[in-house]
Amino acid sequence: xxxxxxxxxxxxxxxxxxxxxxxxxxxxxxxxxxxxxxxxxxxxxxxxxxxxxxxxxxxxxxxxxxxxxxxxxxxxxxxxxxxxxxxxxxxxxxxxxxxxxxxxxxxxxxxxxxxxxxxxxxxxxxxxxxxxxxxxxxxxxxxxxxxxxxxxxxxxxxxxxxxxxxxxxxxxxxxxxxxxxxxxxxxxxxxxxxxxxxxxxxxxxxxxxxxxxxxxxxxxxxxxxxxxxxxxxxxxxxxxxxxxxxxxxxxxxxxxxxxxxxxxxxxxxxxxxxxxxxxxxxxxxxxxxxxxxxxxxxxxxxxxxxxxxxxxxxxxxxxxxxxxxxxxxxxxx
Length: 333
Fold this sequence. Notes:
Elements: H1 15-26, E1 33-37, H2 44-56, H3 70-76, E2 83-86, H4 99-109, E3 119-123, H5 131-142, E4 148-154, H6 162-166, E5 169-172, H7 178-187, H8 192-201, H9 206-211, H10 214-229, H11 234-246, H12 255-276, H13 294-312, H14 317-332
């Protein structure tokens, strides 16, 4: 594969992973297969596509791809003839990447890249490879045909076969810093307050932040605060819990979605603790509701995290939320 100093472009907040690939590129030591590990929306696919663009740029004179040649333009548009992307169907949590799709990609690798450069096969969310698909891929990962690069993206290596992990060179990506996410959202036109709120709730994922509804976040936060300041007892707390859980109930309860919704409450108590400790510069949300003391805010944060763990541990979500609200009322009192 190509060598020479290069700067991968368009990658946000992944300096260490980016530097690793740039160094391997420059030394001519790129692997044939990589495993990019990190949370959704942190830039795993963007990093893979930046590497593909750099490998195939036709007019690179400095360290960065030119962005203007035919190869760069097609790569940036996601329409390059040597870019192949596999991913599970969107909106289906249990969807799998079909073995027929994997076999079709492997057959394509036996032909030389159309553009004469390097072909990239990007397998997004490789946790969705079923055992049959993964086994079909194993031999190709071990020894891909020349001028082919395979990149798998996963959130956690526990979700895929160890044999797949062992055949790839691992690159770790970190969640994006909230400040970085907020600045990027502002660059794209978001108001500072909205950008800060979305960044606080994004979990380090720019993609998640971009999908968030600012009005709904504000409404949810106001609902939580109103419930915390109400003094009408456990029955009203249970009714609130039932209403909240209903929003995440389908054929089954979306426990992870419910836990993510409670992140808003955790961030609220975190910010209250920081303000009480005279560290308001580290807060993520605008001041909402009455100020809390450090001890109360810390107890509130711990109680939310405990309830989240119980919900993920298959406790009754309505009961866990009602107990949480009771503890929070008691702490405020």
